[in-house]
Amino acid sequence: MSEPVPGAQDSTLQRDTGLLWHPYGPLDAGAHFSVTGAEGPYVNLVDAAGTRHRLLDGMSSWWSVVHGYRNPVMDAALTQQIGRFSHVMFGGLTHDPAVELAERLVEVTPAGLDHVFLADSGSVSVEVALKLAIQYQRARGRERGTFLALEGAYHGDTTGAMSVCDPVGGMHADFASLLAENIFLAQPPLPEAPAAEVQAWVREAENLVDTSAGKLAGVIVEPLFQGAGGMRPYHPAALQALRRLADDIDAVLIADEIATGFGRTGSAFASQVAGITPDVMCLGKALTGGYVSMAALLCSGPIAEVITRSSYRALMHGPTFMANPLACAAANASLGLLFGDETSGWQPAIERISPALEAGLAPARELPVVTGARVTGGIGVIELNRPVDIGLTTRVAAEHGTWLRPFRRHIYTMPPYISTAEMVDRMTQAMVAAAEAHSQESAS
Q1: Which residues carry the site feature described as Participates in the substrate recognition with KAPA and in a stacking interaction with the adenine ring of SAM (predicted)?
Q2: Fewer CB within 10 A of the terminal residue: the chain, N end or C end?
């Protein structure tokens, strides 16, 4: 899968280093590869020596490109919309792609989420959700501005979103002086935890909510699977308890399904596994198939009605690119692929990918450096007993035909939904090989 180019050096990589910041990376770090093209589940890359690589994208470009690159349905939808108009302000105007998208989202999400706000990105949808919860409480005559979140949480990098991310183990501890103080509950028990452990956690949650009820505007969670905070699944009873506790104190329950939605954890939306409907749901990533940045917030009728009847009347947010027609067209096409065909939608994809992940990651459990290898729907994770060497993992994975981007102690994959079982097998071989390389490095 590699093709050397004699005497060549990649100028894009050279020009990038020292010019562009990359996510959570120093200016002088640069990038591992430059991208020259992509199609289906593959990305075409060039390294610093000029060697070309065609690698399976084991990350779905940070969990978003679920339909693959240059998908003909997605391409056609955007091309058609460009032929009409690419952008128009949403203040005082509307358009068919936005209305169609809102109708589709209400149809496919849990019953009761009847109103839609279209935002720029996942982090922005979380910002809007937090503002909505505070508006709701003020409309009810309460000055509540604090949120209950989970340790290990990750909800985004904007200011409000950072305030509900893990305050110690997360990536935002340096910004404490900038952030509102919120309340954090211990990470919920794992799905296989004994009943006594689950009950103890629920009691802890009850006590915390009881002592904080007078100031809690809302509760925000990643339903059943914490993503960038640790790639960690948890017991459905914890989510059920949070739904009940939010009801008890009339707090807004916000489900951040930006990473977990659209089938990734094994159901259309993770909230459904616990049999609950949140008051607010945030969606993103796979929403547009990774073609354009966009997110959506869905809200229940009762919450929306309180705000509408208040002095606010409006939800106080309005991005320039709200309901961008190109993004709406991409989202409509993506939803059509995800839910429109029982043979090629998210469900058959997960039914194919999940067992392949289970079989492929099993050998990793025998490695001394591995503390666990787990699968949740279409997510496969190897957890090491020490921080991952990103450079080592990237190199070994590329040698095995796969692009991976590990973090902290996790080597993980979220394969595109178009991946075959054989492709997933190659991804897991790359992951296990990377873990083996860490074991050999530890031994030496």
Answers
A1: 24
A2: C
Q: Tokens standing for 45? A: 């890359």
Strands of the 252-256 sheet, one edge to the other: 113-119, 295-300, 280-283, 252-256, 216-221, 146-150, 183-185
Q: How do residues 99-124 score in pLDDT, each as one tens digit?
A: 999 999 999 999 999 999 999 999 99
Instruction: Collapse the DSSP code of 413 into the 3-class scheme (helix H, G, I; strand E, B; otherwise coil) and give the result.
Output: strand
CB contact at 8 A, 345 and 337: yes
Catalytic residue selected from 215, 285, 291, 412: 285
pLDDT digits (tens, 9 = 90+) for 262-312: 999 999 999 999 999 999 999 999 999 999 999 999 999 999 999 999 988
d(CA 424, CA 434): 15
Please calculate the CA angle 397-398-403 and round it to the nearest 5 degrees: 75
Q: What backbone phi and psi angles, to 5 degrees, belong to 406?
A: -75, 170
Q: What is the pLDDT of residues 423-432, one digit of tens each?
A: 999 999 999 9
Catalytic residue among 136, 256, 291, 417: 256
